[in-house]
Design brief:
Blueprint (H helix, E strand, L loop, with lengths): L5 E3 L6 E3 L3 E6 L5 E4 L7 E6 L2 H9 L1 H8 L5 H22 L1
Antiparallel strand pairs: 1-2, 3-4, 3-5
Helix pairs in contact: 1-3
Bound molecules: zinc ion (ZN).
Zinc ion binds next to strand 5.
């Protein structure tokens, strides 16, 4: 079996397979986006695919900013949360 890369959630610190986490990346132009491919270049942060972690973390946008070395605005955080919650929901229904 191939060993999968592990990452930990910035919110609850749980270590999971990288593919099981949602990646948020800070792009070279300074924008912070949800990265569904997990391959976008830039500094990434990871979050569990669950509402708790996404909501908790994006509410504390300041902490996410620190991980990404950039300030994230409330609006950006809100937009990100929506995108990631939709992705988490989709992933959940695919598994079922
Ligand atoms: Zn988590």
């Amino acid at each position: 079996m191939k060993k999968k890369p592990q990452r930990s959630c910035v919110c609850c610190k749980a270590t999971r397979d990288k593919g099981d986490l949602l990646r948020v990346v800070s792009l070279a132009d300074g924008s912070i986006v949800y990265d569904p491919t997990g391959k976008a270049p830039g500094r990434g942060s990871y979050l569990c695919r669950n509402e708790e972690c996404i909501k908790t973390e994006l509410k504390k946008a300041a902490r996410l900013s620190r991980g990404l070395r950039r300030t994230i605005t409330d609006e950006e955080a809100k937009a990100l949360a929506q995108e990631m919650l939709a992705a988490a929901e989709k992933a959940g229904s695919d598994e079922r």
